[in-house]
Amino acid sequence: MRITSDTYYQNLFNNNNKVNYELLKVNEQISSGMMIQYANESPDIYSHTMRLDDEITTKTQVKESSQSAMSFSEQTDTTLGAMSKELTAFKVKLVQAANAGNSQTTLDALAEEMEGIRNQIAMLSNTSIDGKYLFSGSATETKPINTDGTYNGDDDDIKTFFGNELQQKYNISGDELFFGEESNVTRKVTTNISLYDQLKKYPDIMQDSTIPRNTGTDEYITSASTMRSLMGDTDNVVDAANAKHHFYIQGTTHDGVAFKDTVSLKDTETMQDLLDRIGENYGNSAANQVVSVTINNTGQIMIEDLRAGSSKMEFNIVANTSPYEATIRGGEITAIAGSGAETITAADFDLNGTPFSSDLVIPDPSTAEEKANLIIGKINELSGTTNVVASLVTNNAKSYISLINTINPVDSTGNDAESGNITLSIGASAAVTGFTPGTTSHDNFSAVSNLNELSYGTSVIKEFSNSNYTDKVATTNIEQNMYDPNIFELKNTFVTDIGDFANSNTILNDIFGTNTQTISFAGTQSDGTTAVATSLNITATTNLKDLMDKIKTDFDSASDLTMSYTAGKISIVSSTGNLEFTMTSKDALGNNIDGINSMAALTYDEASFLREGATLTSNIPQIIKDTNAYATDSTKMVDVSTKTSLTDSTNDSLYNVTGTDVQGNAFTLQMEFPKSADSTDGVTYTVTRNGVADSNTYNVFNVDGTNTTSDDLTYRQFMDAVNITVSNTTRTGTTHADQVADLATANTTSSTYLDTKGRLTFNDETSATTKAELNFFDENSNDMSKAGSMFSFQSNTALTVTDPKNDIFAGLDAIIQSVRDGKYDSNGFSGDPRNVGMQNSIDMIDGIADHFSRVQTHSGVQSNVLISTRDRMELLIVNTMQIRSEVLDTDLAEASLRLNQLSLNYQAMLSTVGKITQLSLVNYL
Questions:
Q1: pTM, full prediction
Q2: Of 523, 590, 635, whose CA–CA distance to 374 is shortest?
């Protein structure tokens, strides 16, 4: 190959550029400290560096967010610690108050201090950091707690991002803190009437008439006490043969299954026998104890669910000893025939073989119910005695006349003293069709099948709980004290429509409702002979004192009566030992209506909702059986029901909603759940208002217009039917579209919903104080021969001492109130009858403190995770930066050596080039 000068210089130029480039590159690496400046210099290094830079950025973000979350969490932890200290101080004050011997002044002072601690906890609950409230959930700009303890936030978690789809919660929501559930806590309930040993309290009656009564002592019942000591007796004879003490037990098990049981025991059987029978209803057996049933040191029954995590257990008990009256029931009135005036002859009404004194002329009333009420009124008028109680009872859309002869049908030896017969024979006038004669019972030792039968007569009723939750009935009577024949007590409980015991100044409209216009009385004066038939007209100003004055005026023959009133009960002392009367509520037309509060002990789950202004609220939360969570609008009712299915295999099931609507009209909504054979027909309901039945039957529809089957019925659908009815919305029709339109109209007037505690609530949007009243109950609620109720919304259940579910401020307020009221135990006759008292409150405050401790531990764990994450991120950032440095940073020693090598090479090249360029022809000669 021929090498020319041009080739030589071209190679020289290329080598020079190459060395200069290498020198420039090394110089840039040394000056910048980086191996490359641009991606094209080394794609591998560049991509590796970018990946490491991304990791550093992500870890830095995690570190910063962890730091921010850690500050929030640490402040939460600090605040919870302060709350726990306040709760400790609160408990110290409670224990001090619970010690017997404190004066009311001391209790008031302690209550004030406890109130201050409670308010301090509320203030701490509203702690914020950097403008964000700690306990509002995700609604961090919303103040969480109001002064009354209601919560404004949500139950959402706030989380910080950890990368790789990892997140960490760092807040404690108010829902978790104030209402959180403790799955390891057991439910404990208690009755609130202390049971005393009657044998020791009344030795003159039950032991020996020569023993002075003033030597008797007040001693609480124990588990070893006999039934005779518990229930009492009218003589000193111990009956070991007959099981004449009857205990009517209702409740709900751990799993949400309702039960009813009638337990009949003999004089000689013990309280432990009763406790064991109660336990068996909850599932106790010799091999397995699922509940603990005990009698505490103040004579009250306590039941603890030994399995944790369920809030479903409920309990109610009432008892009676040997009914002292014959009960004669009329048959069902399925129709009343004829039109125009009718006459029923006096001979058709027969009391103990003696016809009444005059015929009964029935005008042409507008309804069958009015005609039946006229018949009942005439029975009361013509009987000439208060031994007959007559009433119209409506059940399952049918009516029957109920007649009770309260004459004692047996003498002291247990033999029949008189027949006690009542004959109601309508006969030729055909005024009533479908009438089946009632039955007469002279069995001195039988239990009743329906608790309504205990509402009349002289049966000795034993109450285990007192309550301000009652039902409404038309008639009540007085009960004579079994130990002191001079003392009488009205069987009903006087409770206002807002659930408070009435006082002497309470307006009767607030007790009986505005539909009750008259209270009629029938009976015998204290002289034992003078018959009384009188009435009290109720005006807007008539109060309870007026009612008591009316009784004294009309029944006091010669200053024989002394009236008194305590904790919902009117007591009367008759110096003659004589007094008989019934009291009946009537509407403006003179018809009997349910206006009188029933005896609270006989009302389990038929109790009226409590009114507070425009709102009616139930007291039984709707709790899902499987999860113990509160029900919501979309919850299927079967998931809360005491039954596994709302479709009975053989019978239609009926559930009733009664009361008054927002206009004050009496109504009944009856919902029907079809039996298996008709299950595809879906759920339907009918409505009666002011005694007039709506001719339509309404289906419950799904959103798509199809019929809703029993087990698919949701709370929202049920509440929509209630809301349309209670709002008094005029129905436009029965189609799905009609009901959608009717509901839209109803929702402008009122709302029916489940609150945050799962309680069914009705709110009247048109009035500050609603006229509406509500009772929800199963058709067989008081029938002890039938299965337990499908649902319970309002109930006289035993008082709750501990429960997995928490309501912190409501609990603190109840504890403070127990101190203010001086309630050392769950005394149903002192202060709020539903308050469990100071002794039980110690268990409550321990539960609250344990809950706070658990939440604080949870918060501490969250803080530790955040601290650990922050520290780990710092270490990872350093490690990643080191790797990045190894990948990208210049090795100065290596670069310097390379620079020296290149410089020497460049200088050598230049020297060689210089020498070569100086050569001539002479050098080759």
A1: 0.80
A2: 590
DSSP code for 476: E
Helix (H) or strand (E) holding 883: helix 837-888
User: How far apart are the C-alpha atoms of 324 and 343, rounded to whole Å?
Assistant: 35
pLDDT tens, 590-605? Answer: 888 888 888 888 888 8
Q: Closest Cα to residue 305, out of 466, 184, 221? A: 184
Alpha carbon distance 690, 660 (integer Å): 9
- Quick check: 769 and 613 in contact, CB under 8 A? yes
Q: What is the pLDDT of residue 66?
A: 78
With bands split at pLDDT 50, 70 and 90, how would you rate the model's confidence at 329? Answer: very low
**Short-list 83, 71, 59, 58, CA closest to 171:** 71
Q: What is the mean pLDDT of residues 554-583?
A: 89
Contact 784, 449 (CB under 8 A): yes
Residues in contact with 842: Cβ distance below 8 Å, sequence separation at least 6, in sequence order? 91, 94, 95, 98
Residues 6+ positions from 896 with CB-CB distance below 8 Å? 30
The answer to whether 332 and 372 have CB atoms below 8 angstroms apart is no
**Which comes out higher in pLDDT, residue 531 or 173?**
173
Residue 311: phi, psi to the nearest 5?
-110, 20
The DSSP call for residue 127 is -
HSE-CB of 223 using CA atoms within 13 angstroms: 11
Contact 108, 820 (CB under 8 A): yes
Instruction: Give the 3-state secondary structure of residue 434.
Output: coil
Helix, strand or coil, per DSSP, at residue 245: strand
Provide the pLDDT confidence category of residue 484 given band limits of 50, 70 and 90. confident
Residue 730's pLDDT band (cuts 50, 70, 90): very high
- The tokens describing 384, both together, are 């000439």
Tokens read off for 435 = 């009438």
User: Which tokens sit at 516?
Assistant: 């009750």
Whole-angstrom distance, CA of residue 280 vs CA of residue 303: 12
Tell me what the mean pLDDT of segment 391-420 comes to: 44
List all residues 6 or more positions away from 800 whose beta carbon is below 8 Å from its beta carbon: 187, 188, 189, 836
Residues whose CB falls within 8 Å of the CB of residue 870, separated by 6 or more in sequence, listed in order: 63, 66, 67, 70
Beta bridge partners of 776: 657
State residue 342's pLDDT score: 54
Q: How many C-alpha atoms does 548 have within 13 Å on its Cβ side?
A: 24
Confidence (pLDDT) at 696: 94
For residues 544 and 779, the model is more confident at: 544
How far apart (Å, rounded) are the C-alpha atoms in residues 39 and 195? Answer: 91
Q: Which residues contact 647 (CB under 8 A, 6 or more apart)?
A: 673, 674, 675, 676, 679, 709, 710, 711
CB 447 within 8 A of CB 264: yes
Residue whose structure tokens are 């009311």: 104
Can you give the pLDDT at residue 885? 66
Q: What angle do CA 49, 52, 56 make, to 5 degrees?
A: 135
Q: Give the three-state DSSP class for 338.
A: coil
For 210-256, the pLDDT digits (tens) are 999 999 999 999 999 999 999 998 888 898 988 989 999 999 999 99
Q: Name the one residue in this structure whose structure tokens are 């007037």.
A: 749
For residue 59, give the amino acid letter.
Answer: K
391, 323 Cβ separation under 8 angstroms: no
Residue 874: pLDDT band with limits 50, 70, 90: confident
Q: Is 688 helix (H, G, I), strand (E, B) or coil?
A: strand
